[in-house]
Write a structure and sequence with these properties.
By secondary structure, the protein is mainly beta. It folds into 4 domains: 62 residues, SH3 type barrels; 61 residues, SH3 type barrels (Roll), CATH 2.30.30; 67 residues, SH3 type barrels (Roll); 159 residues, L,D-transpeptidase catalytic domain-like, CATH 2.40.440. 4% of the residues lie in helices and 39% in strands. It contains 2 helices and 35 strands. Strands 2, 3, 9, 12, 16, 30, 31, 32, 33 and 34 form a 10-stranded mixed sheet that branches. The protein has a 6-stranded mixed sheet with strand order 17-28-27-26-35-29, with helices on one face. β27 and β28 form a beta hairpin. The protein is globular, with a radius of gyration of 29 Å. The N terminus is likely disordered.
């Protein structure tokens, strides 16, 4: 992607006397053009990209006092535009594409073209970037490597083989990622930290099977719009019937969570209660067997075609929009009755490729490791849109307050929404100058929630810049 270049044009106003014309200037020889100043290249002529020598932060402006807008992983190769001296870096700061500045201390010229890998990286056929499980055995503990003997003490005879010793008891709910599997002393362990020597017995872990569920594209891809419905059979059944007319004539079965368009509604009387939805030519579904997303006007002050997300807590349905055009829809799991998701108009302020989450479920602590494709939208409450690799109950309220997504949906939204996450970036931050996408969390009890968090500052800035 190429960067934008802005050119400012200076307009010079000339004033003269109105009484008489100004005297004609005496002819003068055409001046010689000024020599173009010699600019030493910041990098060798053969430089095709700049390679990151370590994971570094990206700033909105040059200097370590500039707003942080993301993080780029080591070994990523980036295109660059210019350099500038600024505080916090021995070498000049480098403006990179598609956005931001990095300290020149941590880049080196490369003869290869720009390259970055999607983070987290998925192998072919994977829907999550690893193997996960939950520690379920009662009385389980974590283990760490035995510390080496102090000076003056003889090491044990079998010191050549590492030993694991008990570290901490596991309290509450612990979901872990397997970074490695090792056998020590005849027992098999999962290494559950990428950096630290922290382990659990494999026998204490129940392995998760991440959900293969995924939502549906809308708009030009399929010709569907909103309202949209999802099959949600009454009584917890796995399928529901469609009918040839609103009140009878069974036709076929549709599995739970199947998306269907809403073409027409039928009521029990004029202006009365909706009893059925038409989903195709002469095909209806009873209202009791579906969850329906009914659109409301978009939030004020959105830019044309700006990307934003609407979450209906009552229907447990999320729809992604570009302006007024719906482009994607899926079922979610928002907060349970004890820990409800707070309504509001938010903006995504931080995206992390993988995030650790901890909290309390009542009085019991919980910890969830390396949650992929996490998008925080409320720094005050710690609320986020994120993958839930530990369940497949999307459409049910069951989270601790966040909005749970199936892995396929979380990944799609992560790379679609703003702030954008270029290849090789491990995080991206929304700021007032480059804000993240709006996330509207609404319910029937609060259909028009108020602006919250830094989203309010974006509104204030846009109101100031709006034409009067």
């Amino acid at each position: 992607m190429r960067g934008w270049c802005c050119v400012a044009l200076a307009l010079v106003a000339c004033k003269g006397h109105r009484d008489q014309p100004a005297p004609a200037p005496a002819p003068s020889p055409t001046p010689e053009p000024a020599p173009t100043p010699t600019v030493q290249p910041d990098f060798p002529e053969w430089t095709k990209s700049l390679e990151l020598t370590r994971t570094v932060g990206v700033r909105l402006e040059p200097g370590d006092d500039g707003k942080r807008i993301g993080t780029i992983a080591v070994d990523t190769r980036v295109a660059w535009n210019r350099t500038q001296q600024a505080k916090g870096c021995d070498k000049p700061w480098v403006e990179i594409e598609p956005k931001g500045w990095v300290c020149g201390d941590y880049v080196k010229p490369s003869k290869q073209p720009p390259y970055g890998q999607e983070v987290p990286h998925l192998e072919r056929g994977e829907i999550v970037p690893g193997t996960y499980g939950k520690v379920t055995a009662p009385g389980a503990v974590t283990y760490t490597l035995e510390k080496p003997a102090k000076k003056g003490k003889k090491p044990p005879k079998d010191a050549a083989e590492p030993k694991l010793v008990e570290d901490q008891p596991i309290l509450g709910s612990l979901n872990v990622r397997e970074w490695d599997e090792v056998t020590i002393g005849g027992k098999v362990y999962w290494k559950i930290s990428q950096k630290d020597p922290e382990y659990v017995l494999k026998s204490t872990v129940s392995r998760h099977t991440p959900s293969p569920y995924g939502g549906t594209r809308l708009g030009d891809d399929v010709g569907w719009a909103v309202p949209i419905a999802y099959v949600w059979p009454r009584g917890g059944m796995v399928a529901a019937y469609t009918y040839a007319k609103p009140t009878g004539g069974a036709m076929r079965e549709l599995n739970a969570r199947t998306p269907v368009p809403v073409v027409e509604t039928a009521t029990d009387k004029p202006g009365g209660k909706i009893i059925a939805y038409r989903i195709g030519p002469d095909e209806w579904m009873q209202a009791a067997d579906v969850h329906v997303f009914t659109p409301l006007p978009p939030p004020a002050l959105l830019q044309p075609n700006e990307r934003w997300i609407d979450v209906d807590l009552d229907a447990q349905i999320l729809v992604a929009f570009e302006g007024e055009t719906p482009v994607y829809s899926t079922l979610v799991s928002s907060g349970a009755k004890e820990t409800p998701t707070e309504t509001g108009l938010y903006r995504i302020w931080l995206k992390e490729s993988e995030a650790d989450m901890k909290g309390l479920n009542g009085e019991d602590p919980y910890s969830v490791a390396t949650v992929p494709w996490t998008e925080f939208f409320s720094p005050e409450k710690g609320l986020a849109l994120h993958t839930a690799y530990w369940h497949d109950q999307f459409g049910h309220q069951r989270s601790h307050g966040c909005v749970n997504l199936a892995p396929r949906d979380a990944r799609w939204l992560y790379f679609w929404s703003d702030p954008q996450v270029p290849p090789g970036w491990t995080s991206s931050v929304g700021v007032v100058e480059l804000p993240g996408s709006v996330v509207r969390i609404r319910s029937a009890a609060d259909p028009s929630p108020e602006w919250k968090g830094y989203a309010k500052k974006v509104v204030e800035a846009r109101q100031q810049n709006a034409p009067r």
